[in-house]
Write a sequence for this structure.
């Protein structure tokens, strides 16, 4: 078996493999989303910056389309179009470039939901793919970035390693 890529967690948690940990900042609040893989399915749980357990989700193979939209933080009714970075509005490009040190955008999506347009831009970071979601005016809505388990805040590391995800039945 090959070792995980740099920055990818490789620990196990109560019989589940930690697939990735992602830091998400939205509305000034930072949370860590821990994705796990196990014999009973894949799951995710959230931990606050202070180490507080915030809950969990479990994915199964039922309703894959709806789950894919949910995992991407989207409603199933959103209209998503992949575009070139140059086609994004100037304020979006400017804020992205300033915020990321001119990182190269690897994927750009224009998302329209109930008449509101936003842009999700993916870009590479040393620990993996990160993303930034911006309004059409360039306001940062959310930033998600992968985090190596050894670079987590101490309270988050403790919560991640001591949380016991509860398998959900009903598959």
């Amino acid at each position: 078996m090959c070792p995980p890529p740099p920055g990818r967690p490789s620990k196990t948690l109560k019989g589940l493999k930690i697939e990735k940990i992602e830091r998400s900042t939205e509305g000034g609040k930072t949370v860590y989303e821990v994705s796990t893989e196990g014999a009973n399915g894949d799951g995710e749980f959230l931990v606050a910056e202070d180490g507080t357990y915030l809950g969990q989700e479990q994915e199964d193979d039922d309703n894959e389309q709806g789950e894919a939209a949910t995992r991407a933080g989207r409603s199933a009714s959103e209209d998503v179009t992949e575009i070139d970075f140059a086609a994004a509005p100037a304020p979006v490009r400017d804020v992205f470039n300033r915020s990321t040190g001119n990182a190269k955008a690897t994927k750009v999506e224009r998302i329209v939901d109930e008449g509101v347009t936003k842009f999700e831009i993916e870009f590479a970071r040393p620990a993996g793919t990160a993303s930034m979601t911006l309004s059409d005016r360039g306001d940062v809505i959310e930033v998600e970035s992968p985090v190596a388990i050894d670079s987590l805040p101490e309270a988050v590391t403790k919560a991640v390693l001591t949380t016991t995800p509860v398998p959900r039945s009903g598959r």
Summary: The chain has one domain: 12-162.
